[in-house]
Structure of 3-keto-5-aminohexanoate cleavage enzyme:
Amino acid sequence: MIIQACLNGARPHDFHPRLPLTARAMALDGAACIDFGASELHLHPRGPSGQESLQAVDATIRAVRLACPGTLIGVSTGDWIENDEQRTRSAIASWTELPDYASVNLSEPDAPAVIDLLHRRGIGVEAGLASVADAERFITLSSHGRVFRLLIEVEEQDLEVAYQVAEGIAAVLQRANVRRPILLHGFDATLWPFVELARERRWSTRVGLEDGKYLRDGTLAPDNAALVAAAAAIFRG
């Protein structure tokens, strides 16, 4: 069971005053999150304009590794980032500063090809499952037993429905006898309930401004480190 800090995601620059958008800001923020209980980092590198970019991975990974030596670092490969399958694959193929792992959403058409490319490059794969259909698709992949980790990442905001989807995904994986580490995380309204559920199920979790900006009591979190500290308190409890 670990806590992963997700520093920024696709959030716009005005989402939070402390949203880290540059390589240096992610490096400093990542180091603070490690100090407060995170074991790993998940990043969405940004280009000079502040927009997400797979071309910015090298500079970002380089900066964060210097600030957080020995920490596992992952990035997103979401298809909206480059908005073109070939550009996505070309960017991944050109990386020289390799992340330890990269997230791939099974809801995206090109997911199997992206997974195969990451494996060929020696990069771990976090398989993102947002629905039962995603889980069903995942278990048909010949490489499903090789992934680094499974992300159960439900965006549904109705808590009871979100619970049902998460348990449905877990049931598919169990029936298929998939034995890979699981990380469960919520989004906005489900952020803290899913941290609690992860603790109960002895799964890993993640928190950070990618997934929400409020603490458990509804107050605005000062920064990513405060969100990590709150999650660490739940896991210790």
